[in-house]
Amino acid sequence: MLPVTRHDLEVDIVDLGKQPPRLQDQAAVLLHQSFNFELGWPTIESARTELADILKQGFARAAIRQDELLGWVGGLPAYRGKVWELHPIVVHPEVRRRGIGRALVAAFEAEARARGGVTATLGTDDDTGITSLADVDLYGNVPKHIADLRDLGKQHPFLFYRKLGFVVTGVMPDANGRGRPDIYMSKSLDPTGNPAGAAHGGPMTPPQITCIAPLLIVKNVPDTLAFYRDQLGFEITFQGPEPDDIFFGIVERGGAMLLFKDVGVMPVPNYTRDIKQGIARWDAYLHVPDPDGLAAEFAARNVKFFEPLTNTTDDLRGFEIEDLNGYILFFGRPLPK
Fold it and tell me: Which residues, including other chains, have CB under 8 Å from residue 124's CB and lie 6 or more apart?
């Protein structure tokens, strides 16, 4: 792998096509070494050809620090330049999870927008079977499989792109062999987020807020993440900042997201602050359209219920779970009127 000297993470985002041959060759070497397998770029020659084609047809932006290339991203036009494909993106493994990938995507979006693009798109392969789209018959119900897309705990790149505003817009079954699909994701490049309405004079859709995520102080982040993954079926979408120094983490399930952080103090659940009267014990309410089904799922995992499934005096149907930090979570929904 290319050596990288790390002093800090201040980088310059530059036009790779205008860089000297030495830096362009670093880009090709990084691409080859990061995707050195049959479906990637198994030879340095194939990586050099790929880079040359991207620079000829589209553009590339690189993250540079003191004449060292730390990563790069390419952009290719489609649909007469209205759509730009993000392809490829690669960051040196020694500086991943430091914001370089995010900066490269932002640079790609800015350049694609400047060239008249209104949509960004990409394909992110599941060629190792680490999402719920792998090893299943997608043809039976493609929309449902896409809606239920989950990471299986190995941090598939779709999680990264989803954080940056990309949404899944399709899937190509068996693109990388049987049971190994390609996941298509797209994002509007219009700053308003609603180019169609603006172009046709239609009503603008107000910006949407799709999730609120409480930040919970916990005693041990890895143990907490494991509890939510193994007991409650959440996906771990971030843990860090280093593999051997995990003091922050994120879990997600459906539209719910929870943030956890260890700051060296003990958790203070709500029930400890209402003098255990039980009138303000919830630390989070998670809306669940089918609490009966979720309760059955948790019971099958031998999850201990703090309060069993019931119709509450507040006209809710649901149940309570206490996590290993003492936080009380209510899973449920309002009863029909």
Answer: 156, 157, 158, 161, 182, 183, 185
Structural domains in the chain plus CATH codes: 12-199 (3.40.630.30), 215-334 (3.10.180.10)
Q: With both helix axes pointing from N to C terminus, report the angle between 21-34 and 44-57 in degrees, rounded to the nearest 10.
A: 120
Per-residue pLDDT at 273 = 81
Question: How distant is the alpha carbon of residue 140 from its chain centre?
Answer: 26
Cα end-to-end span (Å), the chain: 63
Q: For residues 21 and 92, what is the distance between their CA atoms, to the nearest angstrom? A: 19
- Give the tens place of pLDDT for each residue, 74-90: 999 999 999 999 999 99
Q: 332 Cβ partners below 8 Å, 6+ apart? A: 285, 286, 287, 288, 291, 312, 316, 317, 318, 319
The first and second tokens of residue 304, run together, are 């201990």
Residue 255: what pLDDT? 79
* Whole-number Cα distances in Å, 151 to 58, 206, 221: 31, 30, 19
What's the confidence (pLDDT) of residue 192?
A: 61
Q: Which two tokens mark 127?
A: 């060629």
Would the CA dihedral through 12, 13, 19, 23 be positive or negative?
Answer: positive
Cis before 88 (ω within 30): yes
Give how far the C-alpha of residue 78 lies from the chain's centroid of Cα atoms, to the nearest Å. 25
Asked whether 166 and 185 are in contact (CB, 8 A), the reply is yes
Beta strands in 288-327, from DSSP E residues, in sequence order:
305-311, 316-322
Mean of all residue pLDDT scores within the chain: 89
Closest CA to 107 of 11, 186, 9: 11
